Amino acid sequence: RYDDAYHYQRIFLPLIKQEADTDRKLKESQVYEHVMVRWDTGLNKRQIAYFVLPRVDVDAKIMPGDELRLSTLDRTWDAVGNVLKVPDNIGDELSLQLKLGTKNIPLDTSNGFRVECVWKSTSFDRMRNALTTFAIDSNCMSHYIYSTLLGYPMRETNTNRPVVLPRRITAPNLPELNSSQVSAVRIAIGSQISLIQGPPGTGKTVTSATLVYHLVKATRAKVLVCAPSNIAVDQLTEKIHKTGLKVVRVYSKSREVVESTVQFLSLHLQMLGNAELNKLQKLKGETGELSDKDERRYRSLRVQVEQELLSSADVVCTTCVGAGDPRIGKLKFRVVLIDESTQAIEPECLIPIVMGCKQLVLVGDHCQLGPVVMSKDVAAAGLSSSMFERLIALGLRAHRLQVQYRMHPILSAFSSNIFYEGSLQNGVSPVDRIMSEMEFPWPNIEKPMFFFNTCGSEELAGSGTSFLNRAEAQTVEKITTQLLKGGVKPEQIGIITPYEGQRSFLVQHMQSTGSLPIKLYQAIEVASVDAFQGREKDFVIMSCVRSNEHQGIGFLKDPRRLNVALTRAKYGLIIVGNAKILAKQPLWNHLLHHFAESGLLMDGPLTRLHPSTVDLPKLKRLHNPTPVGGRYLESTLLEAHSALMPGVESRRHNMVGGGHPLAHIDPMTLHDPVHAFYPDAIRRAAAATNMQMPACLLIPNMLTQEQFMPWMMVPGGRQADRGYSQGMSQGMSQGLSQASYNLSQNSGYMGNLSQGSDYSAQMSQGDYM
Ligand SMILES: Nc1ncnc2c1ncn2[C@@H]1O[C@H](COP(=O)(O)OP(=O)(O)O)[C@@H](O)[C@H]1O
Ligand SMILES: [Mg+2]
Question: Where is the Formamidopyrimidine-DNA glycosylase catalytic domain (predicted)?
């Protein structure tokens, strides 16, 4: 709770400042000298420099849209450009488009350039501005939202006109909603603040798009639609566009040059619909410069066309940081929807909200990875928990979507049971998710997944801050080749791994040793697990990398990362890893038992797969049965849930009682119950059992891992035997911050740099603007 918005500002400002400093230092430490440059002219007549960077530090991974400064070694010439394309392979060229109007380009020089990363303070500036607006401008949002954000949720007063909704809630060209989606839409339309939570593939984005459609139709308000990353915004933009609404997608200037699927909806391209502006812009591009008169006309016309387009739009889509763009600064947005809001830090979410918000919808899933915070101290101070999570802790209800449409039911079972209390139902049947025409040596064609046990060892990757595993890379290449030969197209395959070192090694290895044409391997996406959040592919291969006797499994032990990794595939999933080593970690042990019991824990070779004989440690229950706290916590939560949710009762015993948690559950059932979090009910249940309950225990997502699932975070499960109380009290003192969950958690017993650094590998300002 905060006394007022000044207090809120005083808490958050130093945090984002420190975070910005960490980020800036990292970026500015990236300097490359003696770089060879190849010059070329792009389609738009702009100069493009192509060059190869010797090594790229995973911490400051360069992203499309980022700015780099190119200079001659003697610094007599320098210029800034935007990255157009980042190579996948070390040794491939990066392309940098110089800014318009760059003078004296040394086109006949190719040697001896210096390349530096330019840190942009835009994100930080906009978050700071939002905090200031929040503090000083009482009209920047409704009083209701203002006091809720400060921690004083008010009784909902019905100031809104009652909205009459059609009986069937669907939007043109989008799937017909299921009942939990429909009720999410109904609740959100009638509420001033609503939270929509959903496991992967449950239609959060479809529901958001449908909701936006009805909000526009019902209220005629202009809706501001945001998400933390550009990719997420693009996906939602595409769906909203399908409904027939007038959508404008605002990209940051530096991002305009980067390709995307919804480019035709971008503000900068829509503006060229104006013939005069188009002509002037072409002229400017060709000659580099306009006459003073033309330049003046060009500028005023730009502003005019820009404002016309924006004010006639039904929906404006941009990233959270993009909402602070001066081009949309003059507009007021009464209705704001933020998709994937659990991946944004709180001040980031505030940017779109301080533009006059009276109705707010936050969409997300706290069981997947949260926002990336670079500075460990800042993460520990609470910046790594999102606004969504904090509002739940304050007692707001999240409406949960429960039917997933992505995965073959066999693929969703583990995630549902372990991460969503068994509540995740399947909207697709096995028949929908079998590719009968493909040829592949699945151990069981009915269950298109397996764990491929390999015993290769991990090694430090070239940069010294990440890991790779050659044996796993070889296996992944063989599986990939087999999939391609079996009739799967490269675009259908995704390869994921938690480590940047392995990611780049895999790309190189496949292309150099794969027996099929190199083009096929190049067309396959290879990404870090974190970067793949929010994405899906028909077939996913995961390389676990970690394989050592004593050092632990690093990143892999974050349950949220495992959840993300397991839920990307639609038709088939293959995990490549060292079963014996991974099984030392209790959560992975459960996963491996799950595979083993289904006859899907395999030893190779690929052409003659056979059930593995590896000895897995005995399963530890997925909760700590000894101290009261642990049992109390789990059962109270579940009791409260089951009181409200038909169908959970039976599952509950699978979770809390004996036996394997996956026993008895039929993953093939199709259900569609409506489900919401009811903190009040949990509170009542706590009261009924007459035990004190700290606020942070009211809702599972507010707990640190130790608090809620102590078995998950301890190396080899050993600490779990020492009792729960220690972990509990420590966790409680961390209270609501959820800090230990993010970066700090990872630094744990591995105690080396690589973890922290790889964790942040996918973070780059570039993608957030
Ligand atoms: N009610 C529905 N009926 C049929 N398919 C649906 C429905 N809701 C979502 N889907 C499909 O499920 C997939 C995942 O939806 P998406 O909105 O991207 O989920 P999320 O944002 O929760 O990951 C998409 O292919 C989408 O078309
Ligand atoms: Mg989505």
Answer: 172-299
Please report whether residue 35 resides in a domain. yes
Measured at the alpha carbon of residue 668, what is the angle toward residues 662 and 674, in degrees to the nearest 5?
90
Q: Domain ends where: 577, 611, 645? A: 611
Reduced to 3 states, what is the DSSP secondary structure of residue 35? strand
CATH code (residue 486): 3.40.50.300
From atom 14 of ligand 1, which residue's Cα is the shortest distance away?
A: 201
CB atoms within 10 A of CB 165: 15
- Domain limits at 88? 5-117
Question: Could you identify the atom of ligand 1 that is nearest to the CA of residue 209?
Answer: 17
Question: pLDDT tens-digit profile of 220-247?
Answer: 899 999 999 998 999 999 999 999 999 9
Residues with CB under 6 A from ligand 1: 175-178, 181, 198, 200-206, 405-406, 427
The structural domain count of the chain equals 2
Residues 273-278: contacts with CB under 8 Å, at least 24 apart: 274/301, 274/305, 276/301, 277/301, 277/302, 277/305
Please check whether residue 279 lies inside any domain of the structure.
no
Q: Which atom of ligand 1 is nearest to the CA of 339?
A: 21
Query: Contact 355/336 with Cβ under 8 angstroms?
Result: yes
**Which ligand minimizes its atom distance to the CA of 564?**
1
What is the per-residue pLDDT across 166-223, written as a single tens digit (0 to 9) for each?
Answer: 777 899 999 999 999 999 999 999 999 999 999 999 999 999 999 999 999 988 899 9
Contact assessment for residue 265 and residue 249, using Cβ atoms and an 8 Å cutoff: yes
